[in-house]
Amino acid sequence: MFNVVFVLGPPGSGKGTICSKIQENLGYVHLSAGDLLRAERERAGSQFGALIESHIKNGSIVPVEITCSLLENAMNLHKTANGFLVDGFPRNADNLSGWSKQMSGKVHEQFVLFLSCPVDICINRCLNRGEGRTDDNVDSLKKRVETYNNQTFPIIEHFGKLNMVRKVDSERPVEEVYEDVVKVFEAANQM
Ligand SMILES: *[C@@H]1O[C@H](CO)[C@@H](O)[C@H](O)[C@H]1NC(C)=O
Ligand SMILES: *[C@@H]1O[C@H](CO)[C@@H](O)[C@H](O)[C@H]1NC(C)=O
Ligand SMILES: *[C@@H]1O[C@H](CO)[C@@H](O)[C@H](O)[C@H]1NC(C)=O
Known about the structure:
This protein is of the alpha/beta class and about 190 residues long. The protein has 8 helices and 5 strands. The chain has helices spanning about 15-25, 35-40, 50-60, 65-75, 95-105, 120-130, 140-160, 175-190, and strands at about 1-10, 30, 85, 105-115, 165-170. Helix 1 (about 15-25) packs across helix 8 and helix 6 (about 120-130) crosses helix 7. The protein is globular and about 45 Å long. The two termini are about 20 Å apart. One 2-acetamido-2-deoxy-beta-D-glucopyranose (NAG) binds near residues 62, 91 and 95.
């Protein structure tokens, strides 16, 4: 069974950076639902491309089943990986119930890596990272943080009750954060 680690934290908590470092050093493959959907949409002869396109045109949400299928396909391409980092997912109750319905019995959910960071620091980081993301202005960032607080944090609490959350303070420099992250993975895998 595939090992899965959910990586959650507010916008600007460093999920992408930390996931790359884990992928580079620990034999886990970094998967982002958003990236997989974009790639599938653009892939010639794609199985779900037209359907995804149609949902985006209609402004409706791509069914979680499609995303889960894409995640599953991606895992099957890397059968020898130590595990998979699912970045920024599940971000709400719908995401979680869709995932559980489709994936339970197929994957082993190892733990949730929770990159914890105070809101004001996260917002400043996003504003300063200068990646030119159009959604990195103050108003839309505040909204994303609010959505995170309203919808994603309860998911982290849910996993917390199951004793599955490994919290790392990601306010610190990335090297220090990553040192603690490695310890979490070592403990989980007895590496
Ligand atoms: C999008 O809207 C069109 C027109 O209402 C409809 O025919 C189509 O089924 C919708 N697509 C999806 C994926 O719901
Ligand atoms: C998770 O929920 C969000 C908000 O409803 C939605 O936009 C997104 O497509 C969902 N993710 C997946 C993978 O279904
Ligand atoms: C978050 O929850 C608060 C309180 O229920 C609500 O007023 C606000 O509109 C919600 N914000 C978002 C972005 O969902």
